[in-house]
Design a protein that fits this description.
The protein is built from seven helices and 16 strands. The protein is an alpha+beta fold and 297 residues long. Keywords: Ligase. It comes from Streptomyces hebeiensis.
Length: 297
């Protein structure tokens, strides 16, 4: 019998709670749902008014993975749906996760949460900058940290305050709050930063996506600022062998990782996030504070 749970007045059928999703750690679907309930406050703050896309992995990361922007079949009528511009003449639709009930409904589908850099109220006008630092083996997050420190200083020269989180995979994400600007302009600025980084650190950075250029270097992926692109949200679990999290980190932690050359320093699983939130709070909270908002030069 499928258990029915009430969340904020909404009835949810939470299925297969004992199902093991992460075989390496024995992590069950019930534990995944508990994680999302525990981190709901900061996660919802970063998802607020942002249409989401889902990477679904209902049988765990070793099973079928499929990416969807459209609301999944059976989406409840009370889930908020936003009209989202597409490249075609017709508008598309995407889910907006704005409350705990919607979060738990989506988490029950076993998903990664990915967001645009703009809000539903202002499509294609980005209020966040994102740089995805993706190391190509044998480079690791250690090299990504070195690149992030350079980019942090470069952004500061333009009056833009950068923050960092792990990708939850092998790299690092840099984010900054911006006064809303056309996504095309933010994309062009992000690309210029990636090119500058490659010129300044030619043995460490590449700004082009071609995989043959990337071994041993950090690809500064600027493309996720495009209006159509989405990026893994802060605090989302990832479809990896273990239940890793896209975890906010302090600049002190980034510096320590770069100096120690110890990639394990920036590997976080879901069971560590409660303690981190109690100790540090939401390290990405400045992204939500207008006083920390920059503007394109």
């Amino acid at each position: 019998m499928t258990p029915i749970t009430e969340v904020e007045g909404r009835r949810l059928a939470l299925k297969n709670l004992d199902k093991v999703l992460y075989a390496a750690t024995g992590t069950t679907k019930g534990e995944v749902l508990h994680y999302y309930a525990r981190t709901a406050d900061p996660l919802l703050a970063h998802l607020a008014d942002r249409p989401v896309s889902f990477l679904r992995y209902p049988d765990g990361p070793d099973g079928q993975l499929f990416f969807t922007k459209n609301p999944p079949p059976g989406t409840p009528s009370w889930v908020r749906i936003a009209d989202v511009p597409r490249k075609t003449a017709d508008s598309g639709k995407q889910v907006v996760v704005g409350d705990l009930a919607t979060l738990m409904w989506a988490a029950n589908l076993v998903v990664e949460f990915h967001t645009h850099q703009w809000r539903a109220a202002a499509p294609n006008r980005a209020d966040r900058l994102i740089l995805d630092l993706d190391p190509g083996a044998p480079a690791t997050v250690v090299e990504a940290c070195a690149v992030a420190l350079w980019l942090r200083e470069r952004l500061a020269e333009d009056g833009i305050e950068a923050h960092a989180k792990t990708s939850g995979a092998k790299g690092l994400h840099m984010l900054a709050a911006l006064e809303p600007a056309p996504s095309s302009e933010v994309s062009a600025y992000a690309k210029s930063l990636a090119v500058e980084a490659e010129n300044a650190l030619p043995d460490l950075v590449v700004h082009r996506m071609r995989r043959s250029l990337r071994p041993g270097k950090v690809f500064v992926d600027h493309s996720q600022n495009a209006a159509a692109k989405t990026t893994a949200a802060p605090y989302t679990l990832r479809a990896r062998p273990e239940p890793t999290v896209s975890a906010p980190v302090s600049w002190a932690e980034v510096e320590e990782c770069a100096e120690s050359a110890d990639a394990a320093r920036l590997a976080f699983r879901m069971e560590s996030m409660g303690e981190r939130l109690e100790r540090y709070g939401d390290l990405l909270a400045p992204l939500l504070d207008p006083e920390h908002t920059g503007r394109l030069p």
